[in-house]
Amino acid sequence: MKKITLLLSLIIAISATSVLAEKADTVKEPASEITVKTEVKTEEFVSDEMADDSEKDKDTDDDEEINKPQKDKPAKPEKDKEEKPSVNETKNKAKETFMVYKAEFKEKKKETKEYIRNIKSVFKDADNETRKEILADIAAVKAELKDFSIDTFLNGVEIDYSQYDEVKPVIKEERTIVPVRALTEALGATVDYDNETRTITITKDDTTIVMNLDLNTAYVNGEQVTLDVKPVNIKGRVLVPIRFVAECFKLDVEWDGDSQTIVIE
Prior knowledge:
Layout: H1 2-67, H2 87-121, H3 128-145, E1 151-154, E2 157-158, E3 170-172, E4 175-179, H4 180-187, E5 190-194, E6 199-204, E7 207-212, E8 217-220, E9 223-226, E10 232-234, E11 237-241, H5 242-248, E12 253-256, E13 261-264
Parallel strand pairs: 1-13
Antiparallel strand pairs: 1-2, 3-4, 4-11, 5-6, 6-7, 7-8, 8-9, 10-11, 12-13
Helix pairs in contact: 2-3
C-alpha cells in the first residue's frame, strides 16, 4: 500500500514538472519574439538616423562646394569693357563742340544785327507808337547780346560813329558825350579845333559855341555857360556833351534808358 502511494506521488510530481516545463516554454517564446522585434526596430531607427546624417553631410558638402572660391576659373578678358577716351581726345572733342557753338552764335548774332539795322532804317518815317516798338526791340536785342553801346537818332537817322575811329559815345558824370565831328556833321554844322589853345568852335547859321578841353565852361554867342560835364579827348577824338550842343541849336533831346538811345529832333 505504501508502495502504491509512493508511486502515485512520483507520477504526480513528474506530471507537475512536465506541465511547468510546458508553461515555461510558452512564456519564453513570446519574450523571444518581442526581443527580435525590438532589435529590428532599433536597427531600423539606427538605419534611418544614419541615412539622415548622410543626407545632412551631403547637403553640407554641397554648400561647401557652392561657397568654395573658384580659383581655377580664368578672369574675363578686358576687351569686353568699353574703352574710355584719352584726356587729349576729350579736350579736342570739347574744343570742336565749342567752335560749333561759337559759329552758331556768330551767325545768330549776325542775323540779329541785320534785323536791328533794318528796323533802324525805318525809324525816320515811323510814327511815335512804332518808334516806341522799335526802341523796345533794340533794347531786347541789346540785353540778349549784352550790348551796352549808345545809339543816336538825329531827325530819325542814326549817326554812324564807326566812321570816326570807332570812338563811341560814353556816359561821364551822368551825361552822354559823343565825338564832336560825328555830331556836327550830322547837324550840318562846322567844327574847328585849335590844338594849341585846346579850343573847340562849332558854328551853324547864327549860333557859335566855343568850348575848351578840360574846362567846364563854354560860350554861346559870347555868353558864358557852365557845363555839367567838360569835353574830353579819347584816342585823338574830342568828345562833347551832346545834350548841351543840341539844345544850343534849339533841338529837343530825349533819352531812352532801356535801349540806351538818344533821340534828337
